[in-house]
Amino acid sequence: MSFVELPSDVQLAVVGVVVVLVGLAVEFAIAYVPWLAFLRNYAQEWGMLLGAVVLEAIQNWLPSEYPEASILAVQLVLAIIAIIMGARKFLVSRGATRLT
Questions:
Q1: 30 burial class (0-12, 13-18, 19+ CB within 10 angstroms)?
Q2: What sign for the dihedral angle of Cα 72, 75, 80, 86?
Q3: How far are the Cα atoms of 13, 22, 40, 45, 100 from residue 30, in angstroms, in the given order?
Q4: 3-state secondary structure 48-66
């Protein structure tokens, strides 16, 4: 059984990304099915729960032969996600309308 303990800042980033993605998924569902608006009240709790599950899965799936490389790979993926989300927010603030 391989287990790589991620640093606390990386753990927090993984959970934060999952919370944001769950919130976006809930808002997307509400946009198409308005009567699902009650789900908005529970999006953060579901995101935290799913974030803990994803974090545990990542820590269990990372190869333990090279833990430093595994941690750097997770940090790289998080950095790429942050760059994409930041660029999207910047472009929306500049008036871009075709972002999917």
A1: middle
A2: negative
A3: 26, 12, 8, 17, 17
A4: HHHHHHHHHHHHHHCCCCC
Cβ atoms of residues 24 and 85 within 8 Å: no
Percent of the chain with pLDDT over 70: 96
CA distances from 99 to 2, 28, 73, 81, 91 (A): 39, 14, 27, 15, 9
Closest CA to 22 of 52, 46, 58, 55: 46
Residue located via tokens 């927090």: 12
Q: What is the largest CA-CA distance in the chain?
A: 49
Q: Model pTM?
A: 0.81
Q: Where are the beta strands (DSSP E) in 1-100?
A: none
In the predicted structure, residue 46 carries a pLDDT above the cut 90: yes
